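Reading group handout, session on sequence-to-structure problems. Before we discuss, look at one worked example. The prompt was deliberately terse, the way you'd type it at a terminal:

> structure Carbon-nitrogen hydrolase family protein

The input record follows.
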Amino acid sequence: MKIALIQTKQNELYNFPGTRTFDTEEVLQLRHEYMEEVFRMAEEAAKEGANLIATTEVVNYSGHFSKIKVPYADLYQEMGQAQEETSNEKNNKFDYDVTTNEETRFAAIASRYGVMILAGLARKENGKLYNSTVFWGRDGRIKDVYHKIHLAGDESEIFTPGQTLHTIDTEFGHVGNAVCWDMQFPETARNLAKMGTDLIVCPTWGWEWIYGPARAYENGIFVAAAMAVPYWMPIEDLRRPSMVISPDGKILVEGPTDKAAIVYCEIDDIHCKQSREFRLNTPLN
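And the output record:
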């Protein structure tokens, strides 16, 4: 299995220490530029033969809500409906050259290259905004949508927390979802492991190396994190770049600390039932 982690370099929308405010036109332009880079990197990874592509957290971010001059939720359309209508078209064909919503663009790449994609997206459903992951199968159809359960900082002022963990049955094994702060809690990885997960994929803005290997080792499973490089500084201190970790806690690959990159990792077999069951059957002290 060839995994490709899309490590992006954030733009000014992600300048959390900054004080600048943005009008709607500026937000949409900066978001468009960022998304175009994500799509370009995803397509490059697909051409390189990746089986699973993962992005960082909320790649369609619109900047901190306190710096936006319009109601924040208005910057996100209702997601899902247009995607569902498109997916049900005859022969499930997508026109990659037509710019529609973000979900259709990801679906087009998945369908065109026969690749699985897990993207971190802000997703508006039934009037509520979620910090989500969306998983497309090789046919370009949505197989799973997960909403981040553990919201960090002031996220809860704009996002609604999710309620359930998910694991997806793929041809390579079971792939579980977690987003950033979810992985701070050992119970997240443990419960995913109990569900039979072989590989946890975590889109994030704050990947900390100290818990990545721990979650992999204590559950006997693979962990992959797609991290973003901050706008105003390189990745440093406890935070580390995108990486893939083996069930014994070893870092298999790691991205650069200061720039965008596609981080590839080839794993012969992600099935880890034996190591997972060994860890789950070990009494906890």
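Points for discussion. First: The chain has one domain: 2-280. Second: Residues 80-100 have pLDDT under 50 and may be disordered.
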